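Bumping my old thread because nobody answered last time. Still need a sequence for this structure:
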């Protein structure tokens, strides 16, 4: 089994930065990729970014416009989402997910999910 524990969310002013962390346990290195998604109330879950453990990455460039980056620390079994130049429209619950079925940008392509962490960006 895979357990994902997210942290780092909070309240930040527009233009500020946050770094989200997702610590994985279980079959960490057997997974193909780790992804970040976000969801606001009444909105569909939106892909943000994903990475393989070897460092190959994909991004939803339409949403993050190069402001976000994803990284991983294999020694700590942790994946990070660095968010810079935050905007109020970035406000959402951010979820970490793991897939054993290859690098993907669709939520249905992921097998395990974290509990989510709230990110609120004020004007």
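Sorry it took so long. Here it is:
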């Amino acid at each position: 089994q895979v357990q994902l524990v997210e942290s780092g969310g909070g309240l930040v002013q527009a233009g500020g930065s946050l770094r989200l962390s997702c610590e994985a346990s279980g079959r960490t290195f057997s997974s193909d990729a780790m992804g970040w998604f976000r969801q606001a109330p009444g909105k569909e879950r939106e892909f943000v970014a994903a990475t393989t453990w070897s460092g190959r990455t994909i991004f939803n460039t339409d949403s993050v416009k190069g402001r976000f980056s994803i990284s991983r620390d294999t020694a700590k079994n942790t994946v990070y989402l660095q968010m810079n130049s935050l905007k109020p429209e970035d406000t959402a619950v951010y979820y970490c997910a793991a897939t054993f079925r290859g690098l993907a940008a669709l939520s249905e392509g992921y097998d395990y999910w974290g509990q989510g962490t709230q990110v609120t960006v004020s004007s």
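The first helix runs from residue 61 to 64. Let me know if any region looks off to you.
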